[in-house]
Design a protein that fits this description.
Largest sheet: 6 strands, antiparallel
Shape: elongated
Amino acid sequence: KMKNKVIAIVLVTILLVVQLTACGFQRGKKEAYKTPGQQARELYVKIIDCFKNRDKDTLRSFFSQYSIKNNPDIENEMEAAFALFDGEIVSYEEPFGDACGGFDDKAFGADSYIKTDKGTEYWMDFSGWLTCAENENKVGVSYIKVVNVTECDRREEKEWENYTIYIGAGY
């Protein structure tokens, strides 16, 4: 009888240790996991920081190798996008980020409105690939689009292209 009780206690103890360890591992894993939409929103905030600081090197690092290789004018596109802003970025709406596709090929992106200290409003979005089984070099940002919404509101639609800048969309 005593031997059976000891065996039962040891088995229960082992099961409890395994259960607690497994739950702790999964709990930590869930806390560390970010949805593709969260990843897109976080990257968007980093992109805005690059615009605030006019940091071309960091901004370039977000682009896919494919996009950089196929857009020889990407440096000038970044400069033009920075120049489109008429002042310092002072605020932006919480970005909307989303993703679509399967595990092997998952596109993602985010967008929001941005305001400068001069009261000008912009809309910026980006799109890219989180995963791309066909070509790993496509993983990263494909393009960033910046629109001076304030100027577009004052103009006819045929003039809007003058107030819209794309970075990386030349392929």
